[in-house]
Structures are given as structure tokens and as C-alpha cells.
Design goal:
By secondary structure, the protein is of the alpha/beta class. It has seven helices and eight strands. A six-stranded parallel sheet has the order 5-4-1-6-7-8. The protein has a two-stranded antiparallel ribbon with strand order 2-3. Strand 6, helix 7 and strand 7 form a beta-alpha-beta unit. Helix 1 crosses helix 3 and helix 2 packs across helix 3 (about 60-75). The radius of gyration is 17 Å and the shape is globular.
Length: about 210
């Protein structure tokens, strides 16, 4: 098989968090800055660390901002779900002896709160969170950290994500990239080695 390591982003790839993230961020800005920003204008926040988002929105107290955001997120937690076809896919890949990993812009606490409740973590050998490298996506450093700790060869790794940040992380690290279109409206300007309309399409190249 060409690849030995299949590595996934979380938000927009494994789980559908868009509504929860954007609505809770909108609520946060209303509370902290007394202004309402349209959800479309907040889409830049998808795929980057929460701290970066808050900084770009002019929130100086990042710790308090994150606390407020997480509190609002609890109100929208019901809208988060695993994308259809994801669990059968990763179970099948695991049974075929692929090493599965995660590279996410979530911090460890967010990973624990947002992802672990879905009981999918048992399928993944290595998880790289935002604290695990000096620079987050779109830097290649998270992927380089994954390669370092797993001793993988670049040609053996396929990274699957839904954002331009995921693409840049993979391609700048010299790793093939698969675009998860089930979490997007279109490919846009994203260049990928593969374009996957559904999770099941991944099995065709693995």
C-alpha cells in the first residue's frame, strides 16, 4: 500500500462543529465587545487556534476570552456530530493495519471536551494538538512533529482536512493532502492530491 499513515484534522473533517463554533463565537463577541458580527464574517476562525481567532478580533484577555467562548459553546454542543461514514471508515482503516493520527488546532482541553465524547480516540495512535509544536497550522511544524514522533516517512503519510490551513500544513511539509469536501461547500482555491466527496472515497486510494 502506498500510505501507511492516514492523518486527520478534526473540525470539519471528522466531526461537524461549524455551527457550534461560529454561533458560540458570535455570542462571545456580543458579550465581550457588545457587537454582533455576521456568521459569514466569522468563518475565518474555522481551522485556526482559538487564541489566534480572539487576537484577530481584538480581544486582549485571551484567557478570559477562551473561558467565555467555551461557556457559550456548551449551549451549542447539541449541534456537534460525527460526519456520516467517518466511524466505519476509520474502523476499516484500522483493521487494514493503517496507522491513524490526528493533527488539530485544538488545544488538549478542547480535544478532550469536543472530541473524546464521541469515543473515536481509540482508533488513533498519535494526536498532535496545538501545544505540541512551536507554530500551529498552516505552518508545517505540526506535521513535522507527527513525522518525528511516529518515525514515519513523508511519502507514507496522507493528511486529510477541510481547510486551506490543512493544505498548507501538509504540502509545506512535503506530505500528500486529501481535501474533505463533505465538510465544505466547494474546493475553492484549495489544491489537493485527492478530492474526497465522501469519507468512503478515501478507501479508494488507501
Amino acid at each position: 500500500m502506498k500510505y501507511k499513515h492516514i492523518v486527520f484534522d478534526i473540525d470539519g473533517t471528522l466531526i461537524d462543529t461549524e455551527k457550534a463554533i461560529l454561533n458560540s463565537l458570535q455570542d462571545t463577541i456580543i458579550e465581550l465587545q457588545n457587537r454582533k458580527i455576521d456568521l459569514v464574517e466569522l468563518r475565518f476562525a474555522l481551522g485556526i487556534p482559538g487564541e489566534t481567532t480572539l487576537q484577530q478580533l481584538g480581544i486582549n484577555d485571551i484567557q478570559q476570552g477562551n473561558k467565555t467562548w467555551n461557556n457559550h459553546l456548551k449551549k451549542h454542543i447539541h449541534s456537534i456530530k460525527v460526519f456520516d461514514g467517518i466511524e466505519p471508515l476509520i474502523k476499516n482503516l484500522k483493521e487494514k493495519q493503517y496507522t491513524l493520527g490526528i493533527i488539530t488546532s485544538k488545544n488538549r482541553n478542547e480535544y478532550k471536551n469536543d472530541f473524546e465524547p464521541f469515543a473515536l480516540e481509540k482508533y488513533f495512535k498519535k494526536v498532535i494538538c496545538v501545544e505540541d509544536s512551536e507554530q500551529p497550522k498552516p505552518s508545517p511544524e505540526p506535521m513535522m512533529k507527527y513525522i518525528e514522533v511516529t518515525k514515519a516517512k513523508k511519502a507514507e503519510v496522507l493528511y486529510i482536512g477541510d481547510s486551506i490551513y490543512d493544505m498548507q500544513c501538509a504540502l509545506n511539509a512535503g506530505v500528500d493532502f486529501g481535501l474533505a469536501l463533505w465538510g465544505r461547500q466547494s474546493a475553492g482555491q484549495i489544491q489537493a492530491t485527492y478530492y474526497f466527496d465522501t469519507p468512503q472515497d478515501i478507501a479508494l486510494v488507501c
